[in-house]
Amino acid sequence: MAKIKFTKGELKRQRDALKQFQHYLPTLQLKKQQLQVKILEARKLLSEKEKAFSKIEEILKKWVGLLNDPRAEIKDFVELKDINLTYINIAGAEVPVFKGVVFEERAIDIYDTPLWVDKGVASIREALALFVEVLVIKQQIEILQRELRITTQRVNLFEKIKIPECLENIRVIRIYLGDQQANAVGISKVAKRKIEEKMHQEALA
Q1: How far apart are CA 149 and CA 146, in angstroms?
Q2: pLDDT tens digit string along 167-176?
Q3: DSSP state of 18
Q4: Cα gap 103→105, rounded to integer Å
Q5: 130 and 52 Cβ atoms separated by less than 8 Å
Q6: CB atoms within 10 A of CB 137
């Protein structure tokens, strides 16, 4: 506990600090709850996207051998050009949100490629888009968890250290000032009685 002064000025400073901590604590607690909810939502979405990716991955495995067909240069049609992201503020944290992917556009020669190529390209593009989305959601969770850790530390600091510390400081300062006041009153009474006694003695003389 930091050293405090046993003065009225210090008492006011401690009361002001307590008021400030008690004012901001509910905001921090609300932020903590919001982050916890958003993390749960992101984890649920991540689970859904990972299941969807695994499902399409199993489909691709069934005809992966066709990818070696020299008439079908699949890689030419699934080249990633760009990833579209937007950023939103969640309880003070800037997090990325997946909006889609852009592939290099190349026309498929329907006369010179196997019939399955169209479906193959679409499936691989879907798998790649899901893979990127999973990575973005994981990044979301990482950012939100980091913000949650910081917020939880602040909540604990206010709840377990700062507010109890201020309350204790206020208590001991008030006791000290009360004792000082009582002593002052006692001394004042003694002085008053002595003055009265002296005046009485002088009146009798």
Answers
A1: 5
A2: 999 999 999 8
A3: H
A4: 6
A5: yes
A6: 22
